[in-house]
Amino acid sequence: MRVDKHSPIVSGLDRQAPKRSLVTVADAAQQTQSERGAAVGSAQGRKSAGFGLQLNQQLTTMQSASSYLAQLSATLVPLKLSLSRELGNARMQDREGVGAQLGELRSLLEQRSARSAGSLDGQLNLHLNEPVRVRFSLPGLESLQTFQQAGRESLLFSIGRSSQEPVAVVLDEGLSEEQILRRFNVGLAPAGIRSELTTDGALVFSAREADWQTLREHLRVKGEGALFAAQRFTELKPVESQLLQPQALETLEEPREVRRMLDTVVKVLDHIQELGEQLRQRQDEIRSFLARQLGDDEQRWAGDYVTAVYNLMRKSSSSYASVSDTLVAQATISRFTVISLLS
């Protein structure tokens, strides 16, 4: 009978046990959530850092391109003035001055890839996310009508050294322009060569600038007699397509040639101005984004730091006074102090 009197005590103890269990589970869940949040924050930080590094690299490349374009513009402006003065003369008067300007221009164009960090092609177009390609035409392969008139023929291209395997382009009768273009793209793809049509309907090719030197010196083709000889390989001389190709001084004797060169210089200067404005706008956007990203990183770092300190104090058996003293001390520590101590 006395056992019944102790029943409430046993019941009370039973009711309190789950409470302690729930608290323990809650603490563990909170700790797991904090650790999970810290892990997610760390992953986001690494992703943000990688993206910021990529943008910084693009910013550096664009700065090199802008610097090169500025130098090119500074060279073209005096040449434009000289050509304008010579335009009214029957024969060129200041041959020495114009010749020196053309020589300086050629030298600068030859340094395009190095000075622009490999970001500008021969057309002075910007490439940030892919390698620069050289556009060129091949004698005897400029017109699609020529292929359509020739009918069926297989073209065997030898590219590079003789040890490399040739690639083939098979042309059939009745092919449309799109089909011919597709045959060239499929056949020349193993050699890294692409083909396309200009606005005038001419067939042009492109290859990576790193492969251009070898391609220019070692490109041959063998046909079946209609387009190219079948008994031997015919050497091809690719003609590079550039926005600006300085003519030899001797070809500028005629006013017509001077006018043509002047028109080209004016066109290039307009292109440089337009591209320069786009580069400046893009650089400003990247700088603004990186500045905002830096602020976000600072806030994320501060949050992670406070969370780490809080978790550390929760695991300790410090008194309220000790915790208070710790918080006051943390408030006076700068990020740079922490980094210096931890490094």
Can you describe what's shown?
The chain is α+β, with helices and mostly antiparallel strands. The chain folds into 2 domains: 35-124 and 248-343, f41 fragment of flagellin, N-terminal domain (Up-down Bundle), CATH 1.20.1330; 133-242, 2-Layer Sandwich (Alpha-Beta Plaits), CATH 3.30.70. It is 62% helix and 10% strand. It has helices spanning 2-86, 95-110, 112-115, 144-150, 177-188, 209-217, 255-315, 320-331, 335-342, and strands spanning 133-137, 153-159, 167-171, 194-197, 203-208, 219-222, 234-235, 239-240. A hairpin with a 5-residue loop joins strand 4 (194-197) and strand 5 (203-208). This is Flagellar hook-associated protein. It comes from Pseudomonas straminea.
Strand and helix layout:
Layout: H1 2-86, H2 95-110, H3 112-115, E1 133-137, H4 144-150, E2 153-159, E3 167-171, H5 177-188, E4 194-197, E5 203-208, H6 209-217, E6 219-222, E7 234-235, E8 239-240, H7 255-315, H8 320-331, H9 335-342
Antiparallel strand pairs: 1-5, 1-8, 2-3, 2-6, 4-5, 6-7
Overall mean pLDDT: 79
Structural class: alpha+beta
Number of helices: 9
What is the highest CATH level, the class of the largest domain? Mainly Alpha
Could you give the distance between the termini?
A: 71 Å
Structure described in brief:
The chain has helices at residues 2-86, 95-110, 112-115, 144-150, 177-188, 209-217, 255-315, 320-331, 335-342, and strands at 133-137, 153-159, 167-171, 194-197, 203-208, 219-222, 234-235, 239-240. The protein is an alpha+beta fold. Helix 1 packs antiparallel against helix 7 (255-315).
